[in-house]
Amino acid sequence: MLRPVQVTGAIIQKDNKILIGRRAPNEKSQGFWEFPGGKVEDGESLQSCIKRELKEELSIDADIGELYSKYKYDYPHISYELYFFKVLRYKGNISISVHDRIKWEKLENFHKYKFLPGDGPVIETLINED
């Protein structure tokens, strides 16, 4: 069994809305919505990974909070260890690089979007906490 791929995701909230992004046509799983984030590189801590990913994907400098949620998610061909962090605050203007759309959306409207299946458990946690 291959070691699961470690991935971090950011929960960025503003005015009762959460930032989500849609994967661009040139990306894997194009058209699916997700939380910003990405794969942990060798020797990188989870916090430095999410900070780097937010800089690369959204051009923001984020202060990362405690680990919010972590779990393993198995797809037929690969396993992921997912780590979600809440962003406390950020500096900079959000701009798009890897997504073709980004949106501030209320949690109660998340059912209208096609999210990556691996994001399902953290969305449930967020909804149950609400």
Describe this structure in words.
- This protein is of the alpha+beta class.
- The chain contains two helices and eight strands.
- Strands 5-1-7-6 form a four-stranded mixed β-sheet. Strands 2, 3, 4 and 8 form a four-stranded antiparallel β-sheet that branches.
Features:
130 residues, alpha+beta, 4-stranded antiparallel β-sheet, 2 helices, globular
Strand order of the largest sheet: 5-1-7-6
Tally of DSSP β-strands: 8
> Helical region count?
2
Termini separation (Å)? Answer: 37 Å
Structural class: alpha+beta
The oligomeric status of these chains comes to: single chain
Strand content: 35-45%
Broad shape? globular
Question: Can you summarize this structure?
Answer:
It contains two helices and eight strands, in the order βββββαβββα.
Spell out the blueprint of helices and strands:
Elements: E1 5-11, E2 13-14, E3 17-23, E4 33-34, E5 37-39, H1 46-58, E6 61-74, E7 79-91, E8 99-105, H2 120-129
Parallel strand pairs: 1-7
Antiparallel strand pairs: 1-5, 2-3, 3-4, 3-8, 6-7
